[in-house]
Amino acid sequence: MALSVNSLSNPTFVFPIRIYYEDTDAGGVVYHANYLKYMERARTEWLRETGYELTKLEQEQGFIFAVRSANVDFLKPAFLNDLLQVHVTVARKGKVSLDILHEIYRENVLVCRAGIKLAGLAAGSFRPQAIPFEID
Fold this sequence. Notes:
Elements: E1 13-18, H1 34-49, H2 54-61, E2 63-74, E3 83-93, E4 97-106, E5 109-122
């Protein structure tokens, strides 16, 4: 699904994730830290879909993103073999930061929600750097 951040009809990118045995704990429930991995994958694919590959941003513009903070709510369990949909929505864009809302669904059931704050940084110095492209 393509992203259109400013579109009222479709402001969200959706990335599917299948739950494998390696994602679960001994009880067959998704281990809590894996939700952050799913969100990272979805953000990477969202950027790729919009034409911005992380490696190219670093190599060509000396720019990287770093997670500054994560506020995660675990609402329902996800299980082995579930097919999840990881939603990526830009909640706010600043000059050097992005606030991303992630919602993870199993069918139509919200299982996890997170607010992720990303900081734009210069790759060499890790100092704040303006995001070198438009999110629209």
